[in-house]
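From the methods appendix. Each design record in this collection lists the tokenized structure first, followed by the designed amino acid sequence. Records were kept in a plain field format so they could be parsed without special tools. The example shown here is representative of the layout used throughout.

RECORD:
FOLD TOKENS (314 positions):
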């Protein structure tokens, strides 16, 4: 394989522009702030949801899922790929929704050819094919935060690490499926027409969250929906259209910042500050240093009191 996969953020702007670079048309992601079916319904045409949660690294795989049931035959009728490489689960989750909505969604030439090529493979080989796709990997990596200190090939997670994982939920063939590449098969949560998806998926998500301690709040939920500008144009809602266009511009700006390495800039800025302080004399310089040390110590103590938090990784 030519290169590794870097981590990407669970962010609506990242996921929206990622799928657009892969050739998907008229689809976007929206972050959900509540677990309410009405919030999902208000988004219009809904294709699925992507759920980010803390993965229990010490947990052993079971022959029976904690919720729902394995549908081992379903992989013959829908696109399900095993996750075979670290850090790819964000893109794998969004593809789990989109490749199962081909026909409802214009997934573009490249992804359609990928699906046709890998679709007849067993899940493990589909996962290997996805992991070795130069196009998908390069687009995925283009949304990673720029950092000169992080290698794109990272060590395997241990039980002491905070590890986060993406999975997908969508309705396929009138069934609600949980598509998690770390599981041996799609997980069925029962009958579910597309129109019933908001009402059926929320209880499943609530049960999953309920398995965590009440103090665990690090979850994120993104809805995969039709481009909201389409509905705004259809309704003639200029205010909503302007709001969506403004959001797109913000996403473009944020994604540009993610790709930029600010280390050189910060270094030059620090040189200028130090030069200015030295020009004020040794007393001013020493006071500045001591004040900075005191502030850093206080921030560290505050973090320890709050319990700290690990970096979000896939």
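DESIGN:
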């Amino acid at each position: 394989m030519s290169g590794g996969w870097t981590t990407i953020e669970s962010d609506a702007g990242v996921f929206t522009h990622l799928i657009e670079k892969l050739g998907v048309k008229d689809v976007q992601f929206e972050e959900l702030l509540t677990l309410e079916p009405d919030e999902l319904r208000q988004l219009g045409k809904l294709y699925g949801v992507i759920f980010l949660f803390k993965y229990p690294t010490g947990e052993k795989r079971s022959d029976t899922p904690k919720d729902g049931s394995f549908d081992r035959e379903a992989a013959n009728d829908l696109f399900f790929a095993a996750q075979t490489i670290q850090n790819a689960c964000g893109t794998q989750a969004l593809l789990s929704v989109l490749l199962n909505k081909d026909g409802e969604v214009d997934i573009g030439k490249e992804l359609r050819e990928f699906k046709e090529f890998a679709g007849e493979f067993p899940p493990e080989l589909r996962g290997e094919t996805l992991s070795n796709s130069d196009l998908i990997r390069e687009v995925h990596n283009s949304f990673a935060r720029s950092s000169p200190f992080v290698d794109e090939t990272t060590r395997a997670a241990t039980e002491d690490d905070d590890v986060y994982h993406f999975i997908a939920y969508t309705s396929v063939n009138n069934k609600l499926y949980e598509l998690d590449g770390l599981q041996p098969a799609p997980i069925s949560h029962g009958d579910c027409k597309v129109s019933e998806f908001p009402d059926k998926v929320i209880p499943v998500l609530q049960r999953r969250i309920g398995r965590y301690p009440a103090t665990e709040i690090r979850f994120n939920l993104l809805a995969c929906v039709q481009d909201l500008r389409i509905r705004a144009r259809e309704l003639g809602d200029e205010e909503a259209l302007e709001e969506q266009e403004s959001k797109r511009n913000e996403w473009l700006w944020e994604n540009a910042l993610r790709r930029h390495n600010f280390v050189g800039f910060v270094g030059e800025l620090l040189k200028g500050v130090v030069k200015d302080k030295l020009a004020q004399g040794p007393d001013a310089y020493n006071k500045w240093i001591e004040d900075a040390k005191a502030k850093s110590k206080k921030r560290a103590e505050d973090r320890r009191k709050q319990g700290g938090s690990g970096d979000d990784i896939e």
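APPENDIX NOTE: The two ends are 19 Å apart (CA to CA).
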